[in-house]
Amino acid sequence: MERDRVEFVGESTEAHQERMLRALRRISERHPGDERVLVVTHGGSMRRVQTAAIGMAMPVVENCGRWLCACESGSFRTLDRASVEDYTRKYKPRLAIPVCGL
Fold first, then answer.
1. Which of 41, 43, 47, 68 is in Cβ range 3.0-4.6 Å of 79 for a Cys bridge?
2. Closest by alpha carbon to 65, among 95, 94, 44?
3. Domain segments of the chain: what residues?
4. 17-55 pLDDT, tens per residue?
5. If pLDDT is split at 50, 70 and 90, which confidence band does 96 have?
6. Residue 80 near residue 96, CB atoms below 8 Å
7. What are the CA-CA distances from residue 52 to residues 8, 58, 64, 69 (Å)?
8. Whether the Cβ atoms of residue 19 and residue 34 lie closer than 8 Å to each other
9. pLDDT at residue 69 is higher than 60
10. What does the CA dihedral 14, 15, 16, 19 come to, rounded to 10 degrees?
11. Which residues are within 8 A (CB) of 54 and not within 5 positions of it... i.e. 6 or more apart?
């Protein structure tokens, strides 16, 4: 049985990423210095931020998973090198990132 095809009318990946980064930058501006903020989101949004911070998204975000990052002067960087190292060991991506360079 063939299913009817439905046209995708949702938000593009690029628009989703920009919306997430804009929101996180606003949150960061409201909490300057060393103040820590917890942001809870779903895996797709987390992956958009990972792409901004490390140049790629880890394809597997487990339920109730966590990933740490910092927003400094509007730029994002990972604080969670261990999760990146675990990912590269477990999934051996074709595009490996140099963990020492994070």
1. 68
2. 44
3. 13-101
4. 999 999 999 998 888 877 788 888 888 888 899 899 888
5. very low
6. no
7. 24, 12, 21, 10
8. no
9. yes
10. 120
11. 78, 84, 97, 102
